[in-house]
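Exercise 3.2. Students should predict the tertiary structure of the chain below and write it as structure tokens, then compare their answer with the key that follows.

Predict this chain's 3D structure.
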Amino acid sequence: MARPEENARAAAGGVTLPLSPDEARATRRAVLPQYLLPKLALTRLAGGFAGARAGAATTAVVRWFIGRYGVDMAEAANPDPAAYASFNDFFTRALKPGARPLADVGPGGLLCPVDGAISQFGAVRAGRIFQAKGHDYTATALVGGDAALAAHFQGGQFATLYLSPRDYHRIHMPCAGRLLRMIHVPGALFSVNPTTARGVPGLFARNERVVCVFDGEHGPWVLVLVGATIVGSMATVWHGVVNPPRPGQLRDWLYTDQDIRLPAGAEMGRFLLGSTVVMLFPPGPWQWNLAWAPGGAIRMGQAMARRG
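Answer key:
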């Protein structure tokens, strides 16, 4: 397995180091079952269960989940497991006021938008984004094939952040932005855990995703909600639930005739069951948080990057 510092150097340099033969074999064995599983059927089943209001049965599952994954309910706005009518209500629970203070990142800086772990971050080189040792993918593929949109991020920066089951699953704005567009891109539903990222080529540009395009202080930027196995749906604050439906074709909404603006730190969306976000930012003198490294834990509201 690649050490975090190796992946960080690879991302910064825009190279994809090959897997060793042993790494490749182990990763293939771990990922192979995902190619065989009926991922969409499992996702629909999980989505139906997560939305069900089953009384004591729902509460029992919530209590099991809290114990299994070590969820910290002390920071929840409502810490009582029995207060949640559905598993989705619990999974997208609000936090107590002040539980995630916003860092002072200075003019033009970026806040961490989620709780979770760092997958990768660094430069967009030759239009490509580093995924994991041995893998990268194009910005054009990530945003649904729009080369003109992807061109804004040539020489820019990206960050890929993974949300585990125990994490807070609301997504917040890394910086202020005016909403320009939202694209629902159909795709696969592979898991997005670190092992799968090492084993499935182009994972984040291959899975179903919701691409949210904003205009900010330094130009256009993108926040992508990536779907995964048993992610029943993804939602945004301006649209509500985006999927389902899953019509199997790209859907595109334009908001340029509206004035939808969200400040830094505001909620912009949520996962109904967990996944990953990928962000793209335009070129500039970005300085990443020096404490960041692939695999490191993160919390919403922490400093992610500064400008200048």
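Discussion points: Residues 102-307 form one domain. The two ends are 34 Å apart (CA to CA).
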